[in-house]
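Hey, resending since the last one bounced:
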Amino acid sequence: MSVGEGRPNRDHPKVSVKMVTFNHEPFIGQALDGVLMQKVNFPYEIVVGEDCSTDRTRKILLEYQRRHPDKICLLLNEKNMGRRYNARHTLFSCRGDYIAILDGDDYWTDENKLQKQIDFLDNHPDCTICFHNAKKVFENGNKSRIYHKEPFKEILILEDIIEQNIMPSCSMVFRNRIFNAFPKIFDSVPFGDWPMQVLCAEKGNIGYIHEVMGVHRFHSGGVWTAGGVHSSDLIIRQRQWLILFFKALDVYLQHQYHHKIMNQIALNHNVIKSARIGKMKEKLKVVFPSLYRIYRFLKK
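The structure tokens again:
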């Protein structure tokens, strides 16, 4: 289903940077530059799964690969295979002892990011995964902000990531071969980073570095964020996805955290209910303005 381009012919890499991309023409160069600027004392490779983009993404990747044949391996899908296939195929093509995650529309900002995280994991054999703080940047003009204003503990456990996805995907580095396949129970979930964190945290602790070393971009082409515009439809869709995830998670973890997970499911149902009421109010306001004014009067 895919054709490999230029598998780096060098020593076994200590780190594989796993990058998936589709129609990321405006962003992919910055993503690659953030990796190529890394100052490290170990060999690494960049494994890019390109899912038959309709823009110039593939052309840009081929040019970068031509300039950096010792580092960049391209997995070029012959037809669009979808995000799940592309992500998993790319993940399991990584050869490194560690895998760093970076989507083609995000980027790293610290030239020592990889070295810091690999040093951390080398020095903490009890940890299977580590992450750092990151910045959120919005296409719609909203002010950028960081994920975590207050630091977490340096060492976290599985229970700490059950209720909330606290790891920016661009910050994740974990030990390779912690898991050899994705459980089918997560096939209905339209995102992969949170399940991946759970699979790692089952086998060891989680490390946290309280430094901003990357950027997660919220833009209109994003699967989850749609540019950071919080419409009722987007909120409903996101919360429905989260309910799918929590239901799958509850089964996968054999109901070990059932109470916490059911609380999250109930919370998301309430958010959906509120969003639908808000959507109804907006429709009433536009289609039946007189009725909306009466509704507002009776609410006082």
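The radius of gyration is 21 Å.

Sorry for the duplicate.
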